[in-house]
Amino acid sequence: MPGEIRLKAEVVRNFTAALFERLSLPAEDAERAAQVLVRADQRGVMSHGIKNLIMYTEGLTKGYMNPHPQIRAVAELPVTAVLDGDGGLGMVVGTHAMELAIAKAKTSGTGMVTVRRSHHFGMASFYSLMALPHDMIGIALTNNAGIAVVPTFGAEAMFSTNPISVVVPAGKEPPFELDMSTAVVAFNKVELAYIKGESVPLGWGLDASGETTSDAGGIVSSKLLLPLGGTQITGSHKGYGLGVVVDILCGVLSGGIYGNLIARQPSDDAYRDTSSTHFFAAIRIDAFRPVDEFKASMDDMLRALKDSKKAKGHDRIYVAGEIEHEIEAERLAHGIPYPLPLVERLQGLARQFEIPLEIGD
Amino acid sequence: MPGEIRLKAEVVRNFTAALFERLSLPAEDAERAAQVLVRADQRGVMSHGIKNLIMYTEGLTKGYMNPHPQIRAVAELPVTAVLDGDGGLGMVVGTHAMELAIAKAKTSGTGMVTVRRSHHFGMASFYSLMALPHDMIGIALTNNAGIAVVPTFGAEAMFSTNPISVVVPAGKEPPFELDMSTAVVAFNKVELAYIKGESVPLGWGLDASGETTSDAGGIVSSKLLLPLGGTQITGSHKGYGLGVVVDILCGVLSGGIYGNLIARQPSDDAYRDTSSTHFFAAIRIDAFRPVDEFKASMDDMLRALKDSKKAKGHDRIYVAGEIEHEIEAERLAHGIPYPLPLVERLQGLARQFEIPLEIGD
User: Fold this and answer.
1) pLDDT digits (tens, 9 = 90+) for A277-293
2) Fold designation for A69-146+157-178+238-289
3) pLDDT score recorded for residue B161
4) B249 to chain A: which residues are within 8 Å by CB?
5) Rounded distance, CA A234 to CA A338, Å?
6) Where in chain A is the domain with CATH 3.30.1370.60?
7) In Å, how far is B18's CA from the nearest CA of chain A?
8) Cβ contact (<8 Å) for B318 and A204?
9) What 3 state SS string does B157-203 have?
10) What is the reported pLDDT for B361?
11) Has residue A177 got a pLDDT over 70?
């Protein structure tokens, strides 16, 4: 498409890793962080990819993200752990924590790891996907300091979009890969409607006076999103409840941030007030059923869903992750299409940090 | 209120236990099952209480529910188990399974138990609430044979309302008690609107032709509910995804029923085709944080939510379970108000099975 340049994932990953090394990360951590971000772009989740390099660069240069965190367990049992991320990048702390959950599941059948004092970890499903090669179910949840969602009947942001990701292996079918925020919609969809001059459905967000509105501009300025379900009559108390569950498992269980705690009780901890907390779980399939039987049932279930009767005007039913799976295959073959402004931002970083970046022609 | 009779929970529980004993359940199991059903009524969840006694009576007399199941572990590790419910009542199998999850968490920090060949277990939060006295987080999920929810872009029921319940202890505040179906709304709310001649919001359900409708009668006859989120533009793919997660953890992981499997592959197992599968987890708080610190954080979070700014026209923000908690306190003091037709149904069962039932005057 015009206005886009296709870059090979490897090129972007190498560039991103080199940037993180310039920003003082150890080579191995720089490589991990780059993998997480570029995989998001590769799957079409551009909101969680290298678009955020500026945010991470700023955090590392201004000192509120820690390039060489001492990640440590503050509590641990064979099947559980609480990690303190020591202000590291979420991609570094997160991969470390999910690896720990997987190691625990290998030994014991399940593993649960909750994490405090980390930072924005990118795409949640990166971590739950890590369970797949081990024939495990992977779960990843996170909150962050950027609160944007109101409780049902509320008019004040009280939690972040608190995503839930659950990934489950299948056999011949692609895995089931759910990765959803517990808000009704992503904020960037509201921004996009605003830029296009379009209205949004009632039930996406509130205006500054706390009323539900179809005016995208009103939501852009209030920054108030509704929980999944929209209004109470269509179940927003459920999305609100799920958002709080994420805050509990990530924030309260780890002793980290949750809700609007930072606004009410700012600290002098250099890392806490920009931080993010996470929760990871890994569940070994063969603790429950033989893996081949389980995968055959998954295939059967996923196919039945796809083959079921379509609503008028639709000719395809998707299962979670199917679209991302198809995008990933195409982008691995043909490169990731980046909008020009984003490529220019990369070129700016390349000049600033003196890192080679091959754009091609 | 006119048209209602208040009955003491104890009276209804004793009657229900006596009925289950007449239906050949061992005294202990009869008492358990009665406790589960009457607690639902006590919390205002009347759709899952003794209203369903006819269903259980029929299942037990017709032989597709087993009054004396041999519940057995078909796979087990210290932290996990798969139970076969042998066609027992969900309330009997479910309490047994949740007790096992709690015992595992006591020893190891967490416990996960999945269950096949059980039946409708009543109110999901009964089981997650069992974790509270042990200072644990309790999780209960279930599916059942009564499929009613369509996938996004679908027009055929492919899973049941697949509820998720998560209960978390707090300190001075009442516990956080989430119990939500992953459908946008309960079917009985559609029926109620139909009886009253009211329309329902677009996004609750589909008519028989597969189109979203505000005609309650159209949904009552099609029996097609939409997933939480309603339509795709307001996030139904998320409710759909969560419904499938419940089906996976309960049905696929246990080797039991899921989706529309029964319709596609009926069996000659006397119990399977009316069955329900469950998933339970218990998480010991002190595996992660000192219990008093955790509870203080919970109190702080829950109070902050309740104290946050209200939307126009609202003067109170609730947290999950708060309404049920208040109803339960009132009903424990003054009895449970049952509508007359339901009381008459109880009296009918009392005559049929020759069980004393004190209605008062």
Assistant:
1) 999 999 999 999 999 99
2) Ribosomal Protein S8; Chain: A, domain 1 (3.30.1370)
3) 97
4) 137
5) 37
6) 69-146+157-178+238-289
7) 36
8) no
9) CCECCCCEEEEECCCCCCCEEEEECCECCCHHHHHHHHHHCCCCCCC
10) 54
11) yes
Give, in order, the Cα–Cα distances in Å from B74 to each of A288, B68, B116, B279: 9, 18, 10, 15
What is the per-residue pLDDT for A156? 96
0.90 surpassed by complex ipTM = yes
pLDDT of A66 = 98
High-pLDDT (> 90) share of chain A, %? 93
Per the CB < 8 Å rule, is A153 touching B314?
yes
CA A275 – CA A256 distance, rounded (Å)? 9
pLDDT per position as a tens digit, A304-315:
999 999 998 999
CATH of domain A1-62+337-361: 1.10.1530.10
**Domain B9-184+226-287+339-353, CATH number (from 3.40.630.30, 3.30.1370.60, 3.40.50.300, 3.50.50.60):** 3.30.1370.60
**In terms of pTM, does the model score above 0.95?**
yes
Residues of chain A with CATH 1.10.1530.10: 1-62+337-361
A305–B158 CB contact, under 8 Å: yes
